[in-house]
Amino acid sequence: MHRVAPHLIHNLLAPLVTYGSHPLTLKRPDGIVLDKPGKPSYDSPSSFRVIVLLQTFSKILERILNSRLSGVARATGLLNPHQCGSLAGLSASDAVTTLTREVKTLQMAGRKVSTLILDIKRGFDNVNPSTLCGMLRAKGVNPYLVSWTRSFLSGRSCRLLYQGSPKVFAPVLVGTPQGSPVSPLLFVLYVSRLYSEIPQGLTLSYVDNFGLTGSSASYRGNLQILQRLYARLKARGARLGVSFSVPKTELIHCRTNRDKAPISNAPIHLDGSVFTPKGEVRWLGYWFTPSISTTPHFVKRLAKAQAAFVAVRRLSPPGIGLPPYLCHRLASSLLVPILSYGADAFVPTVHMIRKLSAFWHKVQRWATNCFMCTPTDILAIEACLPPLDLLLASKRWLAHLRILCSLPEINPATARLPPSVQTPSLHRHSPDLRTLSAKNAGSRLPLPWTQPRPPSKNRAHHPLDALPHSMLFLLSQDGLDALPVTSQHLLSNFYTEPPPGRSYPQLKLKCKNVLMEEWDKAAPDLARYPFRPSLKPHPFLGLDKFTAGRLHQMRSGKSHLRAHHSWDSEVPTTCPSCLSATETFEHAIL
Asked: CA–CA distance from 511 to each of 340, 383, 445, 474, 532 (Å)?
């Protein structure tokens, strides 16, 4: 439609944006009732989620207003800098990175740290249009945005679709529809008043998931701090009409590996309920332990990937089934995200990498139909799938690069970088924590982030400095001048003239080039294997799996060809088809 009539969509939507109106015909969607996975019982309506199916024109209009409203909200201070969800330039890894480094910084200062995980109950269903519009108007938001927000949230109706449903429209008086592009932003703006500053602590959130971190000289003191903070959040939430879910509330007491004190089991009392500290807590898909160990998280990711692989492997048994290029696509688009989730903030141990790599080798053999005797370094090149340790490192490099190139006013992880890192802004958060931890370090004074760590373990980098130090291999190539920003659109909300800097896509390309360089270093020598690593699938992967597997086996020198050295030299090497030439790799292809 846009190609045939480029001005049609603009002419239809421009008056709606100008006058701040959302048509009634776009506010009568169908709602699909989906059950929430993992619920012990589905006898309660809370065990289900309603996803609305919006019209395309409604989604286009909401996407436009979402972009405008988010920029205005950031410029006017409507958004809290510790909100990391449903906002451009932020992700769950930023919240997790901020939390882990803040906990380690407080522990370096000699303090006990505790974290309380909260979840808002039915958050999207409790957004009051009048209250939200009043908040926007008080901050001086453009009247057309306030008018459109009121029009979008008012006068809505929905028709639920499920087996045996009456299929009639019912009015929706409060709440914002799940599935709408602008709904998460409206909810984030609505709950922005819940945030509260914690002395030597932290309040983080991702949409409706809150993480409250307090520190003191003892865990008992942390519980008192968290109880006071919870009472404050509960009172503010009552004025907004929101509350916290009791079954999803969790507590964890963090401790270091050098802590010789007994493990604290002190519970917290909230609203007549007792919550005991847990050994593992799940927040935003990341698993936390008291010692911030990454092994439990990757053990669970490995189990999920193995379960998915069992289902996928049935589509292509050895020698038959899907062609190899579809197996390669399934491995890269399905199994890699499951297996590597969390690698942007967590670093697996060497022992855990071995376990993950053993599973990854099975995936590579399944995709190529190669023999078990094929060496793993050759197997990775044949499958066009890099070794897993390089894949995880590449994902971590890209996440750290995005943090380094984000605006400190937007990203809480960027705001905690060392002041000497030349970000687009000199804004930083809580420099007193860095000073406090440095004073408490004594003889183990943290190293500067530009200095490499010595072989001895007596001195290490500050937890907030380890991130830029891990990217020195990239920053040292172009110097330590001002870094570029991830989005010029985000930058325009804070600066009239963008600061000079390199291109962010160019730095991302350099991360990819470093991945290929490291992969090439780990590849076998040319005399043993003449082919080089590549992420682009081989042309013969489009053949059937048996034929492509034969080619993989011949290229790797582990096939049934008589001329291959992997077989007994007494076997004759003459081709059984032509009975004249030697059966080599090239001859077999011809």
From this structure: 17, 21, 31, 8, 19
CA 123 to chain centre: 22
Strand pairing partners for 160?
31
Amino acid in position 315: L
Sole residue written with tokens 């291109």: 503
Q: How confident is the model at residue 568 (pLDDT cuts 50, 70, 90)?
A: very low
Which amino acid is residue 543, in one-letter code? L
Q: Taking all residues of the chain, what is their mean pLDDT, rounded to a whole number?
A: 84
Residue of 206, 200, 227 whose CA lies nearest to 80: 206
Q: How far apart are the first and last CA of the chain?
A: 50
Residues 6+ positions from 494 with CB-CB distance below 8 Å? 74, 75, 407, 409, 425
Is the pLDDT score of 391 beyond 60?
A: yes
Indicate left, alpha or beta for 25 from its phi (over 0: left) and psi (-120 to 50: alpha).
alpha
Tokens describing residue 440: 């408490």
DSSP structure string for 300-349: HHHHHHHHHHHHHHTTS-TTSSS-HHHHHHHIIIIIHHHHHTTTTT----
Distant-in-sequence, close-in-space partners of 66: CB < 8 Å, separation ≥ 6: 181, 182, 185
Phi, psi of 409 (to 5 degrees): -70, -20
pTM: 0.86
